[in-house]
Specification:
By secondary structure, this protein is α+β, with helices and mostly antiparallel strands. The protein folds into 2 domains: 45 residues; 168 residues, Galactose-binding domain-like (Jelly Rolls, Sandwich). The protein is 16% helix and 43% strand. The chain is built from 2 helices and 10 strands. A 5-stranded antiparallel β-sheet has the order 1-4-9-6-7, with no helix packed on it. It has a 5-stranded antiparallel β-sheet with strand order 2-3-10-5-8, with no helix packed on it. The two termini are 12 Å apart. Bound molecules: calcium ion. Calcium ion binds next to loops.
Length: 213
């Protein structure tokens, strides 16, 4: 009987990585007024960032809209980001809904980069999920297209940047386009999940004791 419980407990621990985690993104649907918890993330002369766009949404009544409205012949990037704490070995996941229009010499993407404790870049990250040409209607851009090994926090990681951006790769003299982002999603394994799992196991033990007598 005790052996059976150990097997059940071990199975539960093995199944743990698939345990559902809460969305870590603040104001993920851009429904709040203005920038809210989102942080500036720009290089060079800045294009337009609208945190309260209402002309196209995936959910609710607002979205994030990035517009490249000027000509450039150099690297230029406009975007926003949030930073989440991670522990080495954490397997993160997420994505974002994206709609893009008339992209030319430009990339619209979600990018996640591992950061050290001092928040400098580790130099590695999860590959980008992007669109580079033309137009497309709302589509979920998922980090799940990258392997769990690529989504696992390395030994020196303390944080991860979650970036929504519009980037001119510096190869053309005209970079134009518009992208909307909405319903951002990012999950990191949480201690709260372990607590819930522990409560479940205690409950399981309790019910076993009852059934034994
Ligand atoms: Ca929204």
């Amino acid at each position: 009987m005790k052996g059976l419980f150990v097997v059940l407990a071990v199975s539960a621990v093995i199944a743990m990585p698939s345990f559902a985690c809460a969305n870590a993104v603040g104001d993920p649907g851009f429904e709040g007024a203005g920038q809210g918890p989102w942080l500036d993330y720009n290089w060079g002369p800045q294009w337009t960032v609208n945190y309260d766009a209402a002309d196209s949404v995936h959910g609710g009544s607002q979205s994030l809209k990035l517009t490249a409205g000027s000509t450039t012949d150099t690297w230029e990037m406009t975007g926003t980001k949030q930073v989440f704490a991670v522990n080495p070995g954490d397997v993160v996941d997420g994505g974002v809904w994206m709609k893009w229009q008339d992209l030319s010499n430009i990339e619209a993407y979600l990018e996640c980069k591992w950061l050290k404790a001092d928040r400098s870049e580790l130099g590695t990250g999860i590959g980008i999920v992007h669109q580079t040409t033309g137009s497309g209607d709302w589509q979920y851009q998922s980090l799940s297209s990258w392997s769990s090994a690529e989504r696992t926090a390395p030994a020196d990681a303390a944080y991860i940047d979650y970036r929504l951006t519009l980037l001119a790769p510096g190869t053309g003299t005209s970079a134009t386009g518009t992208v909307w982002f909405d319903d951002a999603q990012f999950t990191v394994p949480e201690p709260a999940s372990l607590f819930l799992l522990g409560s479940g196991l205690i409950g399981l033990l309790g019910s076993r004791k009852k059934s034994v007598k």
